[in-house]
Design goal:
mainly alpha, 9 helices, 249 residues, 2 domains, 0% strand, 69% helix
């Protein structure tokens, strides 16, 4: 039964990941989510149902449009696969619990802002405003620990990023995003998430520069690393922090 549910959750994540790609790509461009239907951005041919299977259609077409042969961005299958795998992780980690529901929402927000930030270097206010009331309602119901820790997490999340945003090193969208994420994971997890985001961003960014994926001084979006750090802190924050404190204690 567990295997059946896990498979279902993964497939659901793949399907939703396809929709999250659409949201992340169209909302920053101020395009409708419904019109036009999914199409090749090069030849404008409307995609058929067989072209819309998450990940599998991309693999079967070898990463090319089946109608004009233009290469399709790997962002599409990566967003779909990431959502499917992260949904599976949330289910295995938390099950169908309140914390699991918050986890699914965190994954959904993370994938959307990652797609948008990678494509446009922009985190849309509309996306954050959609998730804000959901978290405002659900966090008091399901988050463990004092609610004051979540409020402190929101304040710290915004304040940690705000100086960098004012100095031009990051965008205000990053500050708003991390304030929202900090309100979900609370204090002290928000500190851990920030440190993890900086570590991941520095290591991966350095590797990208080393291998010529990006050029030196080329801006690198930080939203994906804030999201990644938040998910790690959400899943393993208590363990990481307690382990660290026991080592230095």
């Amino acid at each position: 039964m567990t295997i059946f549910i896990a498979t279902y959750i993964t497939l659901l994540g793949l399907i939703l990941g396809s929709f999250y790609n659409v949201v992340g790509l169209r909302v920053p461009a101020k395009e409708s989510l419904l019109h036009p239907p999914s199409h090749c951005p090069n030849c404008n041919t409307q995609l058929k149902h067989r072209d819309l299977f998450p990940v599998f259609s991309y693999l079967l077409s070898r990463g090319k449009c089946p109608y004009c042969g233009t290469s399709v961005s790997s962002l599409y299958p990566l967003g779909e696969a990431a959502t499917g795998l992260l949904f599976l992780w949330v289910y295995l980690q938390f099950g169908f619990t309140g914390k699991g529901l918050l986890g699914f929402l965190l994954v959904s927000l993370s994938v959307i802002v990652t797609v948008a930030d990678l494509k446009y270097m922009l985190i849309p206010n509309k996306v954050l405003l959609f998730f804000l009331p959901l978290f405002v309602v659900l966090v008091p119901l399901f988050a463990k620990g004092p609610l004051g820790h979540n409020l402190l997490g929101a304040v710290l999340g915004g304040c940690l990023i705000l100086p960098f945003a004012l100095l031009g090193g990051m965008g205000m969208g990053d500050a708003k995003l991390f304030a929202l994420l900090g309100g979900v994971i609370g204090f002290p997890n928000v500190i851990l998430a920030f440190l993890l985001a900086c570590l991941l961003g520095s290591v991966v960014g350095g590797l990208f520069i080393l291998f010529g994926v990006v050029k030196r001084k080329q801006p690198i979006p930080f939203g994906p690393w804030l999201a990644a750090g938040t998910l790690i802190a959400y899943g393993y924050g208590s363990f990481i922090i307690s382990t660290y404190l026991s080592l230095i204690g």
